[in-house]
Write a structure and sequence with these properties.
By secondary structure, this protein is an alpha/beta fold. It has eleven helices and 18 strands. The strands form four sheets. The protein has a seven-stranded parallel beta sheet. A hairpin with a 2-residue loop joins strand 16 and strand 17 (451-456). Helix 1 (6-31) packs across helix 9 (307-315) and helix 5 packs across helix 6. The protein is globular. The protein starts with 5 loop residues before the first helix and ends with a strand. Residues 2-40 have low confidence and may be disordered.
């Protein structure tokens, strides 16, 4: 998660010039993008083992507060039961290298069992999971979680904590140097790859596991005279891309089927196209985060600023070029009660639906701040707008899919798969009363609270309509 206050204004200023140039060059192409899964120049869909186009919507689930013997004690089965009951089918589960490998080469079997217990809960409630190797400000050497202290090398450079603006700690010299060593030191490269091989080997057969998010919000070391956008693109190109290829090779040594999720630096949130190169793997998902500096500082959404439009234009360039699906791994502002936040959620949901195969909001917890729900389990202000009807799995090629929140109508149009393809399309319905109809050689096979299944004739052009009330 990216939350910064003091850094926000400086970040926006440093990015202004390169962002404007990138937008001028890419606006025409982005505005004519085909819907996800439509093929051609569009962004391909994430798919399941039956070739169905997936939409994943859900939340991050994690426990940063507990480690060691108490690790993951803050996550319960209730998280997954409650998410599924509101129509969400996806969780990005935070796991920490410092818990998995507390000393070099010693992997915690207790921690692996705790992860497995959480995955069993997810399976029980039909929630798909991506395992996220999470880090904040590198790790425990700097008072956070992530890369173990034994794998942290600073060359004696200084570190000053910033408790009121923790994201700015990424720019402390010691933290930046630690990233450089992780990317460049051969023994640390091997250790990181081994850690991922252990995780993938343990969970590659678990029914809940969809794939692996290789590192949360990677950062790096700025060079003298570089602005932040230029540094981010260089780090992504020269250091993060090779790292992803190394880890992907390690995962593939034990798991041939799981999806590989790769993130740019969090600077993408200000509308900066990534510098990531090609990841040499057939099942890669681009997994950016969707945060705005001013809103993360507690500010309101400004529709006239064009931030969502700028972000969408920039973030779709990489998946179009490399023909990989998109899943937004984190999003959601700090203060959801400000006057324009209802508009923000409507605009954000529409944007995410245009180009992504889904998203994970930050975060499913019970309380204040970023939590999706309060202590009673009720949605916090405006968070209820994330719960919409959607097609979890489409047996065919999606032509269009959109929800009109004002009318309470979801429409899905798709070309059904041929005779050898899957014939069942699955819909997710949030709490409430919904009427589901299908036309064009299809029928609603079954409907129950929160779910519906549509059976289509091979090759049919199908229209599904879901109406509230």
């Amino acid at each position: 998660m990216w939350r910064t206050t003091l850094l926000a204004a400086a970040l926006a200023a440093s990015l202004l010039t390169p962002v404007a140039t990138a937008h001028a060059e890419t606006a025409t192409r982005a505005e004519t993008a085909a819907p996800a899964g439509a093929g051609g120049d569009g962004i391909p869909a994430l798919t399941d083992s039956r070739g169905r186009a997936l939409t994943l919507r859900g939340w991050n689930v994690g426990d940063k507060a507990h480690s060691g013997d108490a690790a993951l004690s803050g996550v319960t089965e209730k998280h997954f039961r409650d998410m599924r009951a509101r129509g969400f089918n996806f969780a990005r589960l935070l796991v920490f290298w410092d818990d998995l490998e507390p000393s070099p080469g010693r992997y915690s079997q207790s921690y692996l069992r705790k992860i497995e217990r959480v995955l069993d809960w997810a399976e029980r409630h039909d929630v798909k999971v991506v395992l996220d190797a999470h880090q904040d400000v590198f790790g425990p050497a700097f008072g956070h979680r992530g890369v173990p202290a034994w794998a942290t090398r600073t060359d004696g450079l200084p570190f000053t904590p910033h408790p009121d603006d923790w994201f700015s700690e990424y720019f402390e010299p010691a933290v930046q140097r630690a990233f450089t060593h992780l990317y460049e030191d051969e023994d640390l490269r091997r250790a990181q790859a081994r850690m991922w091989r252990v995780l993938a080997d343990r969970f590659e057969d678990h029914p809940a596991v969809l794939g692996y998010d290789l590192i949360n919000e990677p950062m790096g070391e700025l060079r003298e005279g570089e602005d932040l956008a230029t540094a981010a693109r260089r780090i992504e190109r020269d250091q993060i891309t090779p790292m992803y290829n190394r880890i992907a090779d390690a995962v593939r040594s034990v798991d041939r089927d799981g999806w590989i999720f790769v993130e740019p630096t969090p600077i993408v949130g200000e509308g900066v196209p990534t510098g990531l190169g090609r990841i040499d793997d057939p099942k890669v998902v681009y997994a950016p985060h969707f945060y705005n500096g001013a809103m993360e500082a507690g500010g309101d959404y400004d529709p006239s600023a064009g931030w969502i439009e700028n972000y969408e234009r920039a973030v779709t360039l990489y998946p179009k070029e490399h023909q990989v699906p998109v899943l937004v791994g984190e999003w959601g502002p700090l203060d959801n009660s400000r006057p324009n936040m209802n508009r923000f959620y409507r605009d954000a949901m529409a944007s995410l639906g245009r180009y992504s195969s889904g998203w994970a909001g930050w975060e499913w917890c019970y309380g204040g701040g970023y939590c999706a729900v309060d202590g009673t389990g009720a949605f916090r202000t405006n968070k209820e707008l994330t719960a919409e009807p959607y097609a979890e799995a489409v047996a065919g090629t999606v032509r269009s899919a959109a929800y009109d929140p004002g009318a309470g109508v979801y429409r899905l149009s798709y070309d059904a798969a041929g005779p050898r393809g899957s014939r069942i399309t699955e819909l997710s319905l949030p709490p409430g009363t919904w009427r589901v109809t299908a036309r064009g050689g299809a029928l609603v096979l079954r409907k129950q609270a929160g779910r519906a299944w549509v059976l289509a004739a091979p090759g049919a052009r199908v229209t599904v309509t879901v109406t509230r009330g």
